[in-house]
Amino acid sequence: MPMDNQDQMPSRPPLWNDPDKRALIFQVIVLAAVFAFFAYIFSNTLHNLEKRGISTGFDFLNNEAGFGILMSLIPYDETYTFGRTFLVGLLNTLLVSFLGIILATILGFIIGVARLSNNWLIAKIATVYIETFRNIPLLLQILFWYFAMLPLLPHPRQSVNFSDAFFLNSRGLYLPAPVFESAFLWVLIALFVAIIAVVFLVRWAHKRQAATGQPFHTFWVSLAILVTLPAVAYVVTGMPLNWNLPELKGFNFRGGMTIIPELAALLLALSIYTAAFIAEIVRSGIQAVSHGQTEAAYALGLRPAKTLQLVIIPQAMRVIIPQLTSQYLNLTKNSSLAAAVGYPDLVAVFAGTTLNQTGQAVEIIFMTMMVYLTISLLISLFMNWYNNKMALVER
Amino acid sequence: MAVIQHTPHEDLPPPVSQTGVIGWLRQNLFSSWLNSLLTLLAAYIVWKTLMPLIDWAFIKADWIGTSREDCSSGGACWVFVSVRFKQFMYGLYPEAEQWRINLMAILFVLLMIPMFIKNFPWKKWLGMFILFGFPIIGYYLLSGGAFGLEHIETSLWGGLTLTLVLAAVGIVAALPLGILLALGRRSKMPIVRALSVAFIELWRGVPLITVLFMASVMLPLFLPEGAQFDKLLRALIGIVLFQSAYMAEVVRGGLQAIPKGQYEAAEALGLSYWKSMGLIILPQALKLVIPGIVNTFIALFKDTTLVLIIGLFDLLAMIQSATQDTKWLGFSIEGYVFAAVTFWIFCFGMSRYSQALERKLHTGH
Question: What CATH number matches the domain at B79-89+161-311+327-361, 3.40.50.300, 1.10.3720.10, 3.40.50.620, 1.20.1250.20?
Fold first, then answer.
């Protein structure tokens, strides 16, 4: 049998037909094009900035801001720097995102479970809620609460009064503010000790159950520890916590804490909107656990509550958590719509007022985008970690 | 021997309490005392909220009139919406030229009808035309300046028209860009892959509003001196960049769902990269992700409202400015409800369409 050419070295194709070389050349061209594009933009920007007499760099952050901000979690007034406005905005963004995430999660889980209820009316109400709120733009919902609903609240003098401590009116919701004395530290220490004790207790109970099969009332004992220890510390140190109640003085309230209407509208819209999406995620997560799992758990003799706790929820959570984190990320990004109602978040204060005052568009937009990018990077790192952890548990 | 004949008793009907309306009620509303309690509570709450709402929106509402004096019955004042209706639809587009928008809408609906007819033979070509040919016709119809049509500045575009233009252009322009990015992200070339990943993650990591701010503040800085661009184009560039990143992720999902054998078969046939993608992989992948594309379109449609923050007058912005008109103060609820209903009809309709498509395209197991 004559040898065919297979053992022979294939002849090298010409340069433009060699896939490796072609890939290399293509990538060099792409890279060069990208660099050329950025260089073009860069030179144009420098030229334009020079024309407008704007100096580049981050020095402006040290200049005095000279404008007030409606709400700040840290001390701030007109004499602080532009850098400080960045911090104020960032903290306000984080505040509204944090509160929104908590509210949306609670509401979303309730509605998601309600949608699967075997009570027809409850399930229908949940469906109507989901289909209504997720199909209306978030911005419209924010404007609706802020411009249409909140002005319907009474004037400060006719505030809705809950036991002389909480007041609701068109200027906001007034709450008692906690005033901590130095001895309150001991209560915090007691709480910390209680948490550590509970962690050890849970580990011990788990080990004992694995070894002997004896269950332990972990939940109730942990709850007792968590409540009693700090409570005892609180009483022993002489109740070092006072409340600063809001009071009507003249036309407005003084003292206490205020949730300004801008924050209230934003928070309401964000949590109602996101809850509709979270509810769908919860529903799909629960439905993803096949019914055979429930039947198997019943066959093993587990009670319905235990089935839910040990079989359904852990498996549903595996589906729910990755999607839930991406909703949290969405909520954080959506909180930037604050600009529409004037809640001083990062975009409204820094990319809005500060940008207008200084004209440093490039630096400011860059910093703002970096903040959101960092948050989304952190969240995707968490997701990778979580997915890896779950993959290990899987058999 | 006598044969004992056994005749079975005829089946009894099921108990009354288990069939019909009563059975349904017992099973779905009053299966336990807790459920009964929940049902009654929910029914009470629904009654208490729905009744005043219906009363306000329909029974006590004013529908006909021309000014706020016609709203006297204490319910909703839909006169506010009907007086401003043209503005909400067309923005500040000159009244004499509004037929052009109507013509465009009619044309679009006529083109879309065959797409819903089963077994329509030229569906593919018609779809291509709607995606790539119709926008050109639409541009000349809206903007004018050729074929004897008067030129209309984009600053006059507004209302629902602008909302639809933004969403449609955003999706049509983002689709090819998104496909390229998705292919780039799955490419074997490290530099192309890294650039695609960086581009996609950058836009997906930031809120649309910062992108719009960037487009409206920074784009003029990026261009050579004297280059002018109108506000609408700047917003569109921002939207397209942002949307292409999301589109890329949707398309990537489709690419990943195609079995490896298809890629290998294409290679075995000796097809080049672009031919194997264009003829084998993409037609299958894009078909898989049509529901995903519709879903991104819904998201984009809702997000177009953000252009109000950079000063364009879409439907929501038109309504927002109408509620602040001194002649019509105090009717903001009616305005927002109208906007909400309009957006809801579009979004809900599209999401139902996408669900139906999903069921239709789900040809596997």
Answer: 1.10.3720.10
